[in-house]
């Protein structure tokens, strides 16, 4: 018999289990370290376990515009609702799309939960208001004088020379982003109608609060006392104000940097915007935001820009106000009409975000509340406890069965279940801050079902090994010969489970998706654990005397399995001469 070629492992040959165990050990250490490093050592709990309110909104298009319910518009709606809910000071609120036309809003229990429920799903209010005055959003300290005796100002310059960050600009400086005509030439009619501003002009310096002749005493007091660093004050600043009335508002100039404004009556509404988007200008090599107005919107925009173009900073600016918050306040250089563009220190993300906000006023969408589920903290805790008890009972029953039927082999199964549980827990904890995954009650049910799926993979492999032992093979070759057959069965079984989970995740909405997601995740981890832990550990234990010699408590005793006599190969006679037929 020819010896196998060097470098090739014969069928049923021994594998190298150390490499596989080293890989899964490194992965476990890395994931666990990442969990502690991120500071999120426990999975995020869903509303049904932590308590709070879950609201399901269904998008509804206007008649004849059914195509408006698309991914872009739904994502824009999600951004608007998220800004609104988080602006109320609700921590860790979740807003996400589910399916093609549903939006799920999860609001954890908190002091502003009731107010957030009232705000969700209402139509966003987008207005263009003239700026009367602007200053730093924080309490303004007394001004300091420089060497010339004038108050010092330290604006933050950008690439376009604009001033951002809520700092106080010098008189005549351009603050915000420049607004220019997108058409080749301004409309003669628009130029002719550009008369003196009908908006009251502040009589003080542009950077100081207006004097009483520029706004009512009540508005002046509200502006002086407004602290834009307080989320509650930012949200309540413009509440209850009609579009035709002046108001105060806050606007974010950068992370943690706010400005506060006195704004005139609304001149243009969001529904007057026909389209807006962030685009890259190839000629100037910069990102800009383009706007197109409706027929009536063009006339309104032409009128207000004609008035503002004759003013000085900051009265030459108009504020784009969404739900009472200034999202942008560009300055006007000339009279504009149907099309315009906003340019400045944009990057791709900021340009597209502003374009989405502007276009939201033109979205032919409304949202209908499909369901509102409120769970108290006590009920959520009871449901979590019940889920954990059910999981413990299921795990206990599986372990009892494994010990009673497989004896020593049950140790491998229990260790494998432990590895699978650890990986599942760590990954769920990491997915919370990464993708917003929250563990709800259906997800807990999916994890419980996964215990049986994982245990089934071990049973398939153990039974294949036992079949090889019954045929008369010793344990070490039986472990290797059983693996290819068991591997095929495990992969087919897990593929079917994962396919069912994937289909369930796609065709369902709401909490059922939590069940499908957890089931799919644990099914994938089952394949990882069986390939990189269960099989290598079985190979190593087959080399020990306890398992290799078939101890009665090993679960691999040939006598208890009814094994056949060991297989032996008959050797051909090598002696010369006649052979006795009886001996043959």
Secondary-structure blueprint of this entry?
Elements lengths: L16 H22 L8 H4 L1 E10 L9 H16 L7 E5 L3 E7 L4 H7 L6 E11 L19 E2 L5 E2 L13 E4 L6 H5 L24 H9 L5 H6 L10 E8 L2 E7 L4 E2 L3 E9 L4 E8 L1 H14 L9 E5 L2 E4 L2 E2 L6 E5 L4 H13 L4 E11 L1 H30 L2 H27 L5 H30 L4 H33 L4 H30 L3 H4 L9 H4 L23
Parallel strand pairs: 7-15, 8-14
Antiparallel strand pairs: 1-3, 1-17, 2-3, 4-9, 4-10, 4-13, 5-6, 7-16, 8-9, 11-12, 12-16, 13-14
Helix pairs in contact: 1-11, 1-14, 10-11, 10-12, 11-12, 11-14, 12-13, 12-14, 13-14
General description of the model:
There is one protein chain. The chain is of the alpha+beta class and 584 residues long. The chain contains 16 helices and 17 strands. Strand 8 (247-254) and strand 9 (257-263) form a beta hairpin. Helix 11 (409-435) runs antiparallel to helix 14.
Q: Which range best describes the helical content: under 10%, 10-25%, 25-40%, 40-55%, 55-70% or over 70%? A: 40-55%
Overall geometry: elongated
Protein structure class: alpha+beta
Mean pLDDT figure? 74
Extract low-pLDDT stretches: 4-14, 140-211
Task: Name the descriptors.
single chain, 584 residues, alpha+beta, five-stranded mixed beta sheet, 17 strands
């Amino acid at each position: 018999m020819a010896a196998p070629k060097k470098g090739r492992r014969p069928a049923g040959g021994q594998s190298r289990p150390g490499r596989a165990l080293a890989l899964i050990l490194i992965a476990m250490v890395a994931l666990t370290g990442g969990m502690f490093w991120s500071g999120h050592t426990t999975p995020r709990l869903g509303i049904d376990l932590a308590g709070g309110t879950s609201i399901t909104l269904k998008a509804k298009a206007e008649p004849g515009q059914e195509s408006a319910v698309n991914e872009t518009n739904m994502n824009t709606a999600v951004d608007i609702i998220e800004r609104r809910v988080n602006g109320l000071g609700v921590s860790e609120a979740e807003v996400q799309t589910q399916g093609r036309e549903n939006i799920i809003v999860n609001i954890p229990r908190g002091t502003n939960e009731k107010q957030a429920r009232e705000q969700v799903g209402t139509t966003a209010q987008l207005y263009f208001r003239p700026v009367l005055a602007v200053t730093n959003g924080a309490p303004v300290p007394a001004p300091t004088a420089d060497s010339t005796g004038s108050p010092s100002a330290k604006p933050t310059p950008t690439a376009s020379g604009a001033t951002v960050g809520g700092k106080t600009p010098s008189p005549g400086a351009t603050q915000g982003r420049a607004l220019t005509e997108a058409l080749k030439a301004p409309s003669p009619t628009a130029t002719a109608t550009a008369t003196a501003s009908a908006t009251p002009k502040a009589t003080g310096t542009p950077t100081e609060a207006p004097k009483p002749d520029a706004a009512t005493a009540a508005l002046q007091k509200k502006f002086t006392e407004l602290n834009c660093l307080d989320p509650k004050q930012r949200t309540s600043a413009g509440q209850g104000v009609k579009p035709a009335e002046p108001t105060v508002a806050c606007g974010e100039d950068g992370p943690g940097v706010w400005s506060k404004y006195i704004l005139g009556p609304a001149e243009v509404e969001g529904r007057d915007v026909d389209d807006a988007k962030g685009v890259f200008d190839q000629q100037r090599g910069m990102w800009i935001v383009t706007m197109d107005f409706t027929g009536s919107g063009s006339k309104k925009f032409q009128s207000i820009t004609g008035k503002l173009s004759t003013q000085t900073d900051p009265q030459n600016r108009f504020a784009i106000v969404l739900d009472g918050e200034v999202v942008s306040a560009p300055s006007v250089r000339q009279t504009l009409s149907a099309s315009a563009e906003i340019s400045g220190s944009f990057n791709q993300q900021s340009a597209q975000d502003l374009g989405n906000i502007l276009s939201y006023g033109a979205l032919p969408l409304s949202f209908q509340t499909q369901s509102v589920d409120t769970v108290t903290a006590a009920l959520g805790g009871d449901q979590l406890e019940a889920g954990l008890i059910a999981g413990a009972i299921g795990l206990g029953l599986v372990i009892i069965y494994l010990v009673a039927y497989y004896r020593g082999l049950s140790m491998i199964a229990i260790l494998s279940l432990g590895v699978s549980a650890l990986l599942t827990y760590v990954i769920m904890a990491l997915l919370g801050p990464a993708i917003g995954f929250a563990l709800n009650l259906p997800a807990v049910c999916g994890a419980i079902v996964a215990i049986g799926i994982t245990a089934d993979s071990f049973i398939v492999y153990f039974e294949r090994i036992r079949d090889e032992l019954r045929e008369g093979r010793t344990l070490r070759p039986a472990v290797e010969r059983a693996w290819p057959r068991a591997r095929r069965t495990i992969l087919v079984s897990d593929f079917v489970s994962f396919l069912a989970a994937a289909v369930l995740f796609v065709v369902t909405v709401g909490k059922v998706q939590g069940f499908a997601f957890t089931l799919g995740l644990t099914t994938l981890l089952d394949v990882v654990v069986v390939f990189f832990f269960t099989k290598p550990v079985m190979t190593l234990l087959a080399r020990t005397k306890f398992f290799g010699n078939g101890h009665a408590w090993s679960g691999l005793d040939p006598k208890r399995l009814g094994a056949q006599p060991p297989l032996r190969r008959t050797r051909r006679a090598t002696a010369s001469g006649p052979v006795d037929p009886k001996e043959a």
